[in-house]
Specification:
CATH superfamily of the largest domain: NAD(P)-binding Rossmann-like Domain
Strand content: 5-15%
Radius of gyration: 19 Å
CATH topology of the largest domain: Rossmann fold
Helix content: 40-55%
Strand order of the largest sheet: 3-2-1-4-5-6-7-8
Order of helices and strands: EHEHHEHEHEEEHEHHHHH
Number of domains: 2
CATH class of the largest domain: Alpha Beta
């Protein structure tokens, strides 16, 4: 296989990142199948993709004709066989659970052609945790995207068993879809940016769960000094509090870290109340007009 053999992309998971990655690939001329076992998730993704395409057009990032053609190249399905039988490269974006990821890849290992490359968009795990379960560890690595509206950076991270030729194809594919690949020399949870970001968010959660200061004042402290448009809790709302909780809880349990367990419990209260951040209309703040966007927010 070489880069020119890639024609069809399979996205596993129709959530926030899955549909964004799919759209980026489709806008770059690839056919895209978006698979999710829950039809309601596919319906939501299809609606959000129309909104995403309009945002990119208004921003001047894409011509309207390109955005429309991208939408026409995308197929949404809960039929795994239909989704995977012609896939040349797979991008997985399901919850941060290595067992779940491994099980899904094992299923698609049977469905996809032998040449298909498997990649994971995991934000905090490392590929060696479930490389063996994929059935094709030599053709598997992490290929991690950020919000495509805000960033063109992608992380490319192999595990020790990833074949060098496969790594080269994924790097070339990243460039074909208009992204800037950041290549890691070895496995690192959280890659580069997310590794630094998680430390920042953990610090903010320590302060809030320890009742040192309010969520708003913690954000004000950061925003007022660093002159950023949002603080750590605004960032967590944009990521999704369900995702933040899963990542925090997973590593808290794995490392048996009491402080991290307290932070996970702090986020879980919001998740249990259905307050997931921007995508649900409420998290640490209310949306679409969160308090931190007010010109008077820093005044308290």
């Amino acid at each position: 296989m070489n880069i020119d053999d890639i024609k069809t992309v399979l996205i596993i998971g129709a959530g926030t990142m899955g549909h964004q990655i799919g759209f980026q690939c489709a806008a770059s001329g690839y056919d895209v199948n978006i698979y999710d076992m829950f039809p309601e998730s596919l319906d939501k993704a299809e609606k959000r993709l129309h909104s995403l395409s309009q945002r990119l057009v208004k921003k001047g990032a894409l011509p309207a004709e390109t955005a429309q053609k991208a939408l026409e190249r995308m197929v949404f399905t809960s039929d795994a066989q239909q989704a995977g039988q012609n896939a040349d490269i797979v991008s997985e974006s399901v919850p941060e659970d290595p067992k779940l990821k491994g099980e899904l890849f094992a299923r698609f290992n049977v469905i996809c052609p032998l040449e298909t490359i498997f990649t994971t968009n995991t934000s905090s795990l490392i590929p060696s945790m479930f490389a063996g379960a994929t059935g094709r560890p030599e053709r598997f690595l992490a290929f991690h995207f950020h919000d495509i509206v805000l960033s063109r950076i992608v992380d490319v991270m192999p595990h020790t068993g990833t074949h060098a030729d496969i790594m080269a194809i994924v790097v070339a594919f990243a460039e074909r879809i208009g992204q800037i690949p950041i290549i890691l020399k070895k496995e690192q949870p959280g890659y580069l940016f997310n590794n630094m970001l998680m430390a920042y968010l953990d610090s903010a959660l320590n302060l809030a769960s320890g009742e040192v200061a309010s969520i708003e004042d913690i954000d004000r402290a950061w925003m007022g000094i660093m002159h950023t448009p949002s603080g750590p809790f605004g960032i967590m709302d944009s990521v999704g509090l369900d995702t933040c909780w899963k990542i925090t809880a997973y590593w808290a349990e794995k490392k048996q870290n009491p402080k991290a367990m307290t932070n996970a419990a702090f986020i879980k209260k919001y998740v249990d109340a259905g307050q997931l951040g921007q995508k649900s209309g409420r998290g640490f703040y209310h949306y679409p007009n969160p308090a931190f966007q007010s010109p008077d927010f820093l005044k308290g």
